[in-house]
Input
Amino acid sequence: MAIKSKRYEEARLEASTNLELYWWVFMRISGVVLVFLLIGHMWMNAIIADLNKIDYDYVAKRLSQTTWKIYDLLILALGLLHGANGLRYVLDDWIRNPSRRFWTKVVLYGLIAFLFVLGSLSLFNHDFGVN
Amino acid sequence: MYRGREGQWAFYLHRLSGLGILVFLMLHVANISSAMWGPEVSNALMKFYHQPVFQLGLLLLIAGVLYHGFNGLRIILMDFTPWGVRYQRQLWYGVWVLFVLFYLPFLVKIGGGILGGGHGD
Output
């Protein structure tokens, strides 16, 4: 079960497994990192750039630079993991029927894994053709 | 803390915004990776997403991200400081102050874009 405690010491006592505690810690750390990454990401694309001008060339130019590839990969990986674990908390709370809960997780985790592969492929294995 | 008043609202909004962001992130990754199928496919899809209705959705999404992020910082303060839980309500109002500060530029820029036309070309 997801940890409900509000303090690290209590969370450690409440954690059913070490893995559960690690996820609890991961949510905090990835959360802090994501706050900065995402405000930067949104600021660049919505305030500095014009949203309506974003097209293939804009994305290609951004993704031809290694810095942005790594920046976006961090968002992709941390965001999907943070989101997947948050989703797990919600599903554990809301879906009472064990077999339905299991299959919902299988489908959603599968989708998330697929999107991670798809996203990393477009970041690193696709030639955007910018010199 | 999670029963009634601010703490409960904070919790529900955190979950709701979190789920919303996850759904968006999935669509966003799918949309960006369409670039692998070439500029035509990619540009057609992006043009579709430049419609005003999606810009409204984007404003909602940015609100969700900012709230979720700042409230997440509030949760961390509650978890790791001895005073965080005591002041969780004040912290929640602090979240909203930060939210307004950061949201205004987006609201002006994107909202202005929706009202001023110029989208979709």
Remarks:
- The mean pLDDT of chain B is 89.
- Chain B is about 80% helix and 0% strand.
